[in-house]
Amino acid sequence: MDILFGRNKKEQLEPVRARVTGKIPSWLQGILLRNGPGMHTVGETKYNHWFDGLALLHSFTIRDGEVYYRSKYLRSDTYNANIEANRIVVSEFGTMAYPDPCKNIFSKAFSYLSHTIPDFTDNCLINIMKCGEDFYATTETNYIRRINPLTLETLEKVDYRKYVAVNVATSHPHYDATGNVLNIGTSIVDKGKTKYVIFKIPATAPEDGKKGRGPLKHTEVFCSIASRSLLSPSYYHSFGVTENYVVFLEQPFRMDILKMATAYIRGVSWASCLAFHGEDKTYIHVIDQRTRKPVLSKFYTDPMVVFHHVNAYEEDGCLVFDVIAYEDSSLYQLFYLAHLNEDFEENSRLTSVPTLKRFAVPLHVDKDADVGSNLIKLASTTARALKEKDDQIYCQPELLCKGLELPRINYAYNGKPYRYVFAAEVQWSPIPTKVIKYDLLTKSSLSWGEAHCWPAEPLFVPTPGAQDEDDGIILSAIVSTDPQKLPFLLVLDAKTFTELARASVDVDMHLDLHGLFIPGTAWDVEKQTPSQEEQGRAVDHGVDPRT
Hints:
Elements: E1 12-17, E2 19-22, E3 30-39, E4 41-42, E5 45-46, E6 54-63, E7 66-73, H1 77-85, H2 105-116, E8 127-131, E9 134-138, E10 143-147, E11 154-159, E12 168-169, E13 174-175, E14 181-190, E15 193-201, H3 214-217, E16 220-226, E17 240-241, E18 245-250, E19 253-255, H4 257-266, E20 274-276, E21 282-288, E22 293-294, E23 298-301, E24 305-315, E25 318-326, H5 330-334, H6 344-347, E26 355-362, E27 384-387, E28 392-396, E29 398-402, E30 404-408, E31 420-425, E32 434-439, E33 444-449, E34 453-455, E35 459-462, E36 472-480, E37 488-493, E38 499-504, E39 514-519, E40 523-524, E41 529-530, H7 532-540
Parallel strand pairs: 23-28
Antiparallel strand pairs: 1-7, 2-38, 3-6, 3-39, 4-5, 6-7, 8-9, 9-10, 10-11, 12-14, 13-14, 14-15, 15-16, 17-18, 18-21, 19-20, 21-22, 21-23, 24-25, 25-26, 26-29, 27-28, 30-31, 31-32, 32-33, 34-36, 35-36, 36-37, 37-38, 40-41
């Protein structure tokens, strides 16, 4: 287990050619770019939680049936400060960093003061976001880092707060057909209010091509939703969109702002200030993108924890959305490094299995409907929405499938009716063991698995000119608990889920979190730079941006 979690990973700064077995389709050309934690020990200090580790970018460049791999740590301010001090000096969500005991009293006092209203880390380890012509490593704080997707070089740090008043933001934005970015963040006690802010970053801006990051300067607030609690806003990891609506879950997995403000003094982490309140409801907010206002109806469901929305769409006057839901917050707890030992697979068990659930909410509520009546008349789902006395609507989901996480779809179907979910199989242990294709229509599934192999999030790449939703390729980076087995990039036929090829690399590969695929055909693999023609094509091509 230490092979995958406890030991720092080595960078592979120069491209290394993979050994390909099988045949990669000739049309598959481009870069699979991924992100995740790779370093958990700095000097004599260790992070407490796996999600705190320093960001390690890695990429697979695919060209003419060959694959080249490279990896590089994100040179964030956090990374540089830690490495220079040879100890952890910047706090992460699950690890609070304290001053060197040799520092004087004034340094210590300043450190305590700065953590009362914390300036969060720029250790952007969760995902990759495309914004205009640029790519950014992202996390859930107000910071993102621009990167070079070819060389994995770290470029400038961007603070969302310069453009929109948010203290945290998701690493799972959405993209429309023209490349505009839609995301959501939390503005904490700003002008006496705590609210969830939906903001939009345009794909292009008038000054594009000039000095400066044009699109970000034109970020606009799309809509704001008041938090039900001033000092205990909801934690969330993603949200859903359709052609006309945004769906956001205000779940009873909440951050206690007062506890966070005093966490440093009390000697606890910020993560300890996050708690699941099983006695509360999960509130479903639906925002009309045309009016930029929430719909008036009040929807809620049972308490749950959702990290990943799968998809959402509109059907016959209803909004249908699918999520991976837990009954509690046990998932986060299991990834503390103290639990990730040789007995992890045997002893670490989720108290709630991740379940694919489908919800349906009526977009136009009949005020004359009887109390207790089901407002959902769709033949395609058994999800219900029951009208209550106080005009609230209680939503009961359809349970579709258990044991899925890290869901992906064919992003061309994002916000539209769809059929297939590609995911990692996760049962009572939070570690993925198989790659799965789940058919929402037939309720059947296909899977790929191999002994001692842990697959990363599967990413769908469509075949050029594809007509069918599942006409394409699945890519997943595979690591192994067997030290004698090399890690590899898995290439599956998305229709049949048969293995087409694998590209094995003799490197120290880490278990990653999320990423994207950048299509292209003229990469200079040795220099990892594209031709002038390809630079334009890489920007204009339909990059699969799903996170």
